[in-house]
Amino acid sequence: MASYTKLLQFSKEVTQEIIERDKTCIFCQMNYRMEEFNPNKLDCIVHDIMHFIPRSKLGLGIPENGAFGCRMHHHMLDNSKYRNEMLPLFEEYLKSKYPNWDKTKLKYSKWG
To answer: Model confidence at 1, in pLDDT bands (50, 70, 90)?
Structure first.
């Protein structure tokens, strides 16, 4: 079995699956706080895969726990006062993709 830290990372296959599912940043799709963006910034062009439940809280690297995000929205999610506003939007997005989505199944557990 893989070490638990590997289970928290998005594999190349999972990353590709999320990119194909989302196509672009989920928050850009929602036009979320776009007025705060400088369109000339590289951060608006570079994209990441964002964890709903962060790795630091043992969030798994599975499609149900991730979404495609531009660097600016990813930074906002992880490091800004908007996190509590963004998480419900992120959750609703994941629920729209996975009807049986359950956040209790997104964390690593030694006991399965």
So the answer is: very low
Alpha carbon distances (Å) from 55 to 17, 45, 101, 106: 19, 24, 18, 10
Q: CB neighbours (10 Å) of residue 98?
A: 12
Q: Is residue 67 part of a domain?
A: yes
Would residue 47 count as lying in a domain? Answer: yes
Tens of pLDDT, residue by residue over 53-109, are: 999 999 999 999 999 999 889 999 999 999 999 999 999 999 999 999 999 999 998
Domain holding 67, by residue range, is 4-105
Distance CA 61, CA 58 (A): 9
Given a contact cutoff of 8 angstroms between Cβ atoms, the answer to whether 52 and 66 are in contact is yes
Domain count, the chain: 1
In a domain, 27, yes or no: yes
111 part of a folded domain: no
The two most distant CA atoms of the chain are separated, in Å, by 47
pTM of the model: 0.88
